[in-house]
Every structure is written in C-alpha cells, then in structure tokens.
Design a protein that fits this description.
Radius of gyration: 14 Å
CATH architecture: 3-Layer(aba) Sandwich
Order of helices and strands: EHEHEHEHEH
Number of domains: 1
Low-confidence stretches: 2-10, 127-134
CATH topology: Rossmann fold
Strand order of the largest sheet: 2-1-3-4-5
Largest sheet: 5 strands, parallel
Distance between the termini: 12 Å
Structural class: alpha/beta
CATH class: Alpha Beta
Mean pLDDT: 76
Length: 134
Amino acid sequence: MSSKSVNGKHGKIMLVGFDNNRILEKRFLAAGCPVVAATDNEAAINYARHETFRTTVLVSRGSLINVAETVFNLRDLNPSMEIIVLVDRLGKQSGRFLRQLLEHPIEGTQILTRRQLQKRLHAAGQPAPPGQSA
C-alpha cells in the first residue's frame, strides 16, 4: 500500500468483508485513513458505483472465484483503484486459497496477510525523514 493510499487527503479506503470486532477498520482510522465498510461483494460494488475510493481491501475467506469477480467489477468502475486481497486466517483453507492466488494471480492486485497490512499501515504512519516526502 503506498503512502498516498493511506493518507486521508488522497481518498477513502473501502474495506470489504468480515472484519471481526472492526479491528481492521480501527487500524485504518488510527493511520488517518477514512474508511467505508462493505459487508459483502455486492455492497462493495454498490458503494463503488456512487463513491470514489483510492484503495479497496478485500478480506477473503477462501473463494478465488468470488474475489476475482469482485476485483473485475471494481476495475470496471474505477480502473485506477488500488486493490489489496487480504488473506484471512482459516488454517488449511487459507493456505489453499493463497496457493490459488499465487498460481493464478489477478492482475493489478496485491496479496497480503493481516500482518503485512499492519506493517504497511505502521510504516505509512511514520513521518518521512527530513528532505523526503511521504
């Protein structure tokens, strides 16, 4: 995730899928990112028809077909939107899904775990060294 995408001045983030206890939403907000939460893929498409998002984070629960369909629909609505597929923890099922994503990548998407996303949010929240822009 680029520093621009986590800076609230550059646009909203859409979080799609199940977010247990709103943990991800709280982390984005703490990093200064305005967030719109969509409970499912259909709601995400509806939001994307009416609002512009800089980044969409899809919390995946293991269906490559559903993720791919959502990504393609979002791309049709906003080709420049950054899309991150967040592989959720589901034991064997998440490992299988991750292998599918790596074997059949969806062009223009990033694949991250929760830990990787958290590291990016933390890094983006850090001030840039003197003489460098964030």
